[in-house]
Amino acid sequence: xxxxxxxxxxxxxxxxxxxxxxxxxxxxxxxxxxxxxxxxxxxxxxxxxxxxxxxxxxxxxxxxxxxxxxxxxxxxxxxxxxxxxxxxxxxxxxxxxxxxxxxxxxxxxxxxxxx
Length: 115
Hints:
By secondary structure, the chain is an all-beta fold. It is built from no helices and eleven strands. The mean pLDDT is 96.
């Protein structure tokens, strides 16, 4: 059974940085054969796409307009780990961040940006 475990969330001041990690286990295919994504859900809002790396040989990255230029997604195929480097954080980035691979979701990690 596939399992995704996120970590790295926390409380940070506006303008600060955090790095999220998502460790995958039990996947049927090699890690880079999947589209690997980060989503987030703020209180009272729907879950939204944040960033993703596709399953192409080059591993093309895509970002939502709201995080483009501030967040960087990456992955380590050997460690089966997906990362999200978040810089220049804003109050509106506050949300629970979820790792998504195929139909699998992690439990989420809370990111709170507040002064």
